[in-house]
Structure formats: structure tokens, C-alpha cells
Amino acid sequence: MKKIFSGLALATALATASFANAADVKPTVILVHGAFADSSSWNGVIKILEKDGYPVIAAANPLRGVASDAQFVASIVKSVKTPVVLVGHSYGGPVISEAAYGNQNVKSLVYVAAFAPEAGETAAELSGRFPGGTLASALAAPVDLADGGKDLYIQQDKFHDQFAADVPAADARLMAAGQRPVTVAALNEAATEPGWKTIPSWFVYGDADKNIPPKALAFMAERAHSKQTVVVKGGSHVVMISNPKAVATLIEKAAR
Fold first, then answer.
1. Stated pTM of the model
2. Which terminus of the chain is less hemmed in, N or C, by CB atoms within 10 Å?
3. Please, what are the domains in the chain?
């Protein structure tokens, strides 16, 4: 009898320890960049999150189409065994919205100067619905693709002012040269299942964003019943680069 009780005590202790360890596991933060950027745009945010003990994955968003890009990100989400905080910048917003749908381990969504479309809406339409966006006039002539599609880039001499006005000019020049193109089709592809309708969401954006009008961002944050919306004064479209602390702090709130 004594051995039985000793065994039960050991099993209880192990179960309690396991539960405590599970409770201590921090969510994995998956960062999804948008158009005209790449995964390195998250470097400042990654440094802060990792310092604070969060596992981080910066996904290389293909920028080919909302549905296919979302499937790519969803495959990464499914490979992670912890809860996930999905973070999207700009066009990455529709991608995380769709990638999160049906993935039970996604605990929260964070939109960083990002689109949060309703089903049937497109990034292009949402941008044009409110005044203030000047992206169209900064785009270079589309690049024709072998499959009949077209890629879009921002003109390098306009990149700093249009995309990253609050980033040092030397850094913006490097970003302009290394920008990743997005297809015309991706910006005009309608969203289907908006994850923000069922998953808690947080928003952060700059009030000097020229790619997505701040009024559009405010509208989407309010519609999604944002848990907290942070507006960075003077912030450009790349607030995660110019203000990594503000963005990382909000992500950590969404992770709790």
C-alpha cells in the first residue's frame, strides 16, 4: 500500500510540474511582412521579442496572392506546437487573417499598418476608399511575368518619402534596392474568411502612413473591435522599423 501511495504521489508531482512548465511556455510569434519589404524588416522587433524570451519566426511571404500566401503561412502555423501570435504588416494583414482561420493554436492577431479586410474586400479597394494614400503615383511601371501576371515595385527615388519617411535615408536606400515585389493580382484578390471576426486582434500604425491612409487603418481597427490600437505620431508605413519598441510591446500584450 505504501508503494502505491508513493507511486501516486510521484505521478501527481510529475503532472503538476508538467502543467507548470506548460503554463510557462510563451507563444511563438510569427511575423509576416508585406509588399515592398522582406523578413529583415522585422529585425528590430525580433531583437526585443527574443530578449524577452519569445520564440520568433519571420516568414518569407511569397507576395503572389492572398489565398496561396495564406496557405503558405498556415503551413508554418500548423508546424508550431505552441500557441501562436500571428503578426502581419501591410498586405500581410489579409494573409494572416486567412491563415489564422481554422488554426486552433492562433491565440491572437496583430495588424501592423496592415489591412484587415472583410470577406470580399481587397487591399487595393480599401486603400482607395479613404483619402491620403499616394502609393499609386510612386509605383514603377509593372514588370511583366512569364505567367501573364505583373509585379509591382516602388520607384527607388520615391521609396524613402513614400514608404519609410521616418527611417534614415541611407537605410531607406538599401530597403529600396532590396524591396520584394507584389503582384497586381494579390492586391486585387478578395479576402474570404476574416480571422479577426473570431480571434482577438490588436492594431498599431503611424499617423503619417502614405501607403494605407490612416483613416482606413482606423476604420479597420474599429470594425475588428481591436483590443488596443496604438497610433504612432509621425509614423510612416514601416512603424516596425522606425518604432520597433512600440510594435514589440503591443505584440507582447497580444501574447499574454
1. 0.91
2. N
3. 26-255 (3.40.50.1820)
